[in-house]
Design goal:
Endonuclease, Chain A, 263 residues, alpha+beta, 11 strands
């Protein structure tokens, strides 16, 4: 069956080739039987009734039951209007689906703008000045709690940690664990006393496994000693991740329970 140029607009509007040819054939008769439509349109007779029933179902033709049944085309303006209406309804459904998709995806998209590669949670510093500067920045941002394992060597000498006193002054809770060797340095011990007087809770233990700072259960700073150079060559790792901070806090609380009050 060759497709006439008249069928092209109907194909664009959603009819298949058989339906378009059958509708065009119907428009050329006041009414016609299935056999007549098949002959005019050049369609196989074994398919024609399925095709015509499809047109009736879409509202593009009517049928007069009988033996034989007669089919009549709906006026083109009405038929085309029905096809357009079907497309409009489909478009409205697509727009609703699109709106739902936007509503579902937007929160995750917005949240994702603040997320970065997991490795960006981690910062590694080795240069003492850089360590001191970064520690000062993070400590100054504390809002609720500061938990510290303090042991030498110090990136920031205790007597120079003015930010720590400022935090205590604005109500940040600070608890520090010191190694017992803190008593061996009278100047450092005196600084600790001044912090205790300002509100820091301090305890001592025989030995601490590493230097550790936990800020607001959000950020953790800890040392990793060089296995060869030992404590003279420190690497400071900063991890901004609440889960790790909470895990380190569990270790801090265990050590805190074993400590003795600073005298």
């Amino acid at each position: 069956m060759s497709q006439s140029s008249d069928a092209a607009p109907l194909l664009s509007l959603g009819l298949n080739g058989y339906e378009a040819s059958a509708y065009i054939a119907l428009t050329r008769r006041d009414r016609a039987t299935g056999a007549e439509v098949a002959r005019i349109a050049g369609l196989p007779r074994q398919r024609i009734y399925d095709v015509l029933d499809g047109l009736v179902g879409r509202g593009l033709a009517t049928v007069e039951p009988g033996r034989p049944a007669y089919y009549t085309a709906v006026a083109p303006d009405q038929a085309i209007g029905l096809l357009l209406e079907a497309h409009r309804a489909a478009l409205e459904e697509l727009e609703e689906d699109a709106a739902r998709a936007v509503a579902l995806l937007t929160p995750a998209f917005r949240a994702g703008r603040s997320e970065t590669d997991p490795l960006n949670f981690i910062e590694v510093l080795r240069e003492p000045a850089a360590i001191a500067k970064r520690f000062g920045e993070l400590q100054a941002g504390a809002q609720r709690e500061l938990l510290i394992f303090t042991k030498p060597p110090y990136a920031v000498e205790p007597g120079e940690n003015l930010e720590g006193l400022e935090l205590l002054g604005r109500g940040v809770q600070a608890r520090s664990l010191y190694e017992r060797t803190v008593y061996d340095n009278p100047a450092v011990a005196e600084v600790v006393r001044s912090f205790v007087a300002a509100g820091e809770q301090a305890r001592v233990v025989d030995q601490l496994p590493l230097k550790l700072v936990i800020i607001d259960e959000r950020v953790t700073l800890f040392t990793m000693e060089d296995p060869v150079a030992g404590s003279t060559d420190l690497t400071i790792t900063i991890v901004e991740h609440p889960s790790l901070a909470r895990l380190h806090k569990l270790a801090f609380e265990r050590a805190w329970q074993q400590g003795e009050d600073f005298h």
